[in-house]
Amino acid sequence: MHLLITGGAGFIGCNFVRHVLAEREDWRVRVLDKLTYAGSLDNLADVMDDPRFEFMHGDICDREMAEAAMDGVDAVVHLAAESHVDRSIISAEAAVQTNFVGSFRIFEAARAAGTGRVLHVSTDEVYGACFGDPFEEDDPLTPRNPYSATKAGADRLAHSYYITYDMPVVIARPSNNYGPWQYPEKLIPFFTWRALNDEHLPVYGDGMQIRDWLHVEDHCRALLLLLEEGEAGEAYNVHGDNERPNMETIRLILDELGKPESLIRHVEDRPGHDVRYAMDATKIRALGWEPQIEWEQGIRKSVRWFAEHVDWMRSSVARGKAYFDEWYAGR
Ligand code: NAD
Ligand code: TYD
Question: Which domains does the chain have, with CATH numbers?
Fold first, then answer.
């Protein structure tokens, strides 16, 4: 198997690269990544010399690059994206380009090359906010912010390639991931970094919004399973079975670091903030998968990982300085 992983220098991507190389010894892995602020070769340092691994620096929106990346490949796991809701609120431009147009380029290049399976990584955010029972795969997609709207577009475009061209596409819809190598703009690493520096934690609104937390290692096991055993044309929810109000997660971060709750500051809410994400994952569980990492231990271990990787955190935050200055001004 020769596998192309787009976005492999990002958070989930670099964890998935390691997972695949560890679990499938005879597979080769090629990563295509633009190395935006969110991606770094530091995240892949321990696999760069592996003869089974190859890194291609490039943009998925570039048709020729997408075609070149597909050369000799048997399957694709498409992770590359502009992945942050708050940035997409400041400007939707990059999200529209990469998440929608870039996904189109990847699907089109896979179709032209006759590549085997394409596992498209979507998100629980495509369903929009959940006010009732957890979402099932056939529920309508009603995304409410630019990031999730571009992801919903790509999700349906992927499906259209199955219907129209008979391309063997499988769609994963994972919930909020956490774990090592997560770029420190997302809640858990960002608040860990702020608390380590004794800076206030800017909680949007009352902090009672609910997220379902999935450890990235549980997610990687799900992705490999779906790549190999997911049914073409189908979407699969991948949940952590771990719905928590943000305040509970934030208090746990502070507790692990031994920092005071006086660091918490309630600030202006995110526009269009989805109050709850929740999904039913009966479908992937029927394939034999279930999340294994217990929430409190998983969060504590991740917080310690960030605290032990201060140089990585510092250089990651430095790459996003302009964004942090703009978004958190007054927050
Ligand atoms: P990330 O932001 O950490 O990494 C994204 C990677 O994609 C980076 O390495 C970046 O350099 C690369 N990239 C961005 N634009 C590119 C382009 N135009 N061409 C090539 N490479 C490009 O994101 P992540 O958290 O690892 O998320 C990976 C995927 O999983 C995304 O599709 C995201 O929507 C989805 N997802 C993430 C979560 C989560 O909680 N992190 C949850 C559900 C779904
Ligand atoms: P985030 O990690 O950005 O993921 P998403 O918005 O895709 O779920 O945010 C997780 C939750 O934490 C979300 O409800 C927004 C909240 N949050 C804050 O309250 N303050 C912050 O500074 C950030 C980054 C997030």
Answer: 2-178+213-238 (3.40.50.720), 187-211+243-271+293-321 (3.90.25.10)
